[in-house]
Amino acid sequence: MGTRCGIRWTAVALLAALTSGAAPVVTVAQDTENPYISRLDVRAGRQLFQARCSTCHGLNAAGGNESTGPDLTTGRFRHADSDAGLFRVIRDGVRSTAMLGLGADADEQSIWQLVTYLRSVDVTAGGTPTGSAAAGRQLFTGTGGCDRCHMVNGQGQRLGPDLSTVGERRALAELETALVNPDAEVLPRWWTMKATGPDGQVVEGLRMDEDTFTFRIMDADQQLRAFSKYGGWTWERVQRSTMPGYADTFTAAERNDLVAYLFSLRSEP
Ligand code: HEC
Ligand code: HEC
Questions:
Q1: Does 57 contact ligand 1 (Cβ within 6 A)?
Q2: Could you tell me if the CB of 172 is within 6 A of ligand 1?
Q3: Is there a smaller number of Cβ atoms within 10 Å at the N or the C end of the chain?
Q4: What pLDDT, in 10s, does the model give residues 72-123?
C-alpha cells in the first residue's frame, strides 16, 4: 500500500477541453488515490450502496446476475482496473447497459466512498502488507512504545484496545489510518475526559468510571485520579483519542512495518 498515508490527492483533474469549443470534460487522473478510505467511509459507502445500487447488485454487492447487476465482490472488474477506474464506472455508468452511473453532478466524496465500500467487500482482498512484521513487532514494543497502552496476547497495558486479533478486524488501509489519524474514529469507550479544577489545572485521560458523586480518570502516566463532582471541578467528554498520531514520528517504511505486524495479529494459528 506504499505511501498511502499523507493522502496524495493527485487530484481530480479538471480537463477543460480547450479545443473546438467542446464542453468541459471532468476526468479522473489515472493515478488518483482515493482520499476517503476510513472505516467511516466504508460505512457511508455501504449505506449509499444499499440505497442506490443494491436493487441490481444485491444487498451485499454479491450480485443478482449479469443482466440485473453482476457480483462486485470478486476483486475483478471488467470495466475498471484501479480505484480511479471504478470511480469513473460509478459516475459514468457502462454504456448501453442498465448500469447508468450516478452522473457527472454526483458528489465526489460519495463516489469515492462507494469505491471504498466495494474494496471492502472484495473477497480476494486483505491485500499483502509491504512491510516487515518482525521489524514492526520490534517498533511496537521498542521505540514505538505501543505496549504502554495496548495489550497483545496478554502483554502490555489497557489504556487502549486489545490488539491481539486486530488483523482480523481491520483492513490494511484502516490500520494505516489508525496510526496517522487516531481521531478518525473513536468509540465512546475510548473518548477522553477532561477535568478542569478550581485553579484552572487540567487533567485529561480515559474516563474509568463515573457515578453520581465521583469520576475517575486514568491519565497518560496510568495514574488513576479520583474527583468529587462537588469539589469545584468541571468535566467534559472529548471525542478524541488519547493515542498520539504517528505520521511524523515514524517514516512511511516504519509505519508499513507496524501495519504488517498489526495485520499479522490474528487468532488462527
Ligand atoms: C438498474 C440496475 C443497476 C443499478 C441500480 C446499478 N448497477 Fe452497477 N451494473 C449493472 C449492470 C447490469 C452492470 C453490468 C454492465 C455490463 O454489462 O458490463 C453493472 C456494472 C457495474 C460495475 C462494473 C462491474 C465490472 O465488472 O466492471 C460497477 C463497479 C457497478 N456496476 C457499480 C454500481 C454502483 C456502485 C451502483 C450504485 C451507485 C450501481 N452499480 C447501480 C446494473 C446496475
Ligand atoms: C497513549 C496511549 C496509546 C499509545 C501510546 C498508542 N495507542 Fe493505539 N490506541 C489508543 C486508544 C485509546 C485507541 C482507541 C481509540 C482510537 O481508535 O484512537 C487506540 C487505537 C489503536 C488502533 C485501532 C484499534 C482497533 O481496534 O481498531 C490501532 C491499530 C492502534 N491503536 C495501534 C497503535 C500502535 C501501533 C501504537 C504504537 C506505534 C499505538 N497504537 C500507540 C491508545 C494508544
A1: yes
A2: no
A3: C
A4: 877 788 999 889 999 999 999 999 999 999 999 999 999 999 999 998 877 6
Query: What is the radius of gyration, based on Cα positions, of the chain?
Result: 23
Say how many C-beta atoms besides its own lie within 10 A of residue 179's C-beta.
23
Grid cell 447508468 is found at: 100
Distance CA 13, CA 110 (A): 18
Q: Strand, helix or coil at 151?
A: strand
C-alpha cell at 202: 487540567
Q: Which three cell numbers stand for residue 232?
A: 469545584
| Ligand 2 pocket test, candidate residues 149, 165, 169, 206, most atoms within 8 A of CB | 149
Q: Which atom of ligand 1 is nearest to the CA of 79?
A: 27
Would the pTM of this model clear 0.70, i.e. be above it?
Answer: no
CA of 78 to the centre of ligand 2 (A): 38
User: How far is 152 from 258, CA to CA, in rounded Å?
Assistant: 13
- What are the backbone angles phi and psi of residue 156, rounded to the nearest 5°? 125, -160
- CA 26 → CA 13, 22, 172, 209, distances in Å? 7, 12, 30, 53
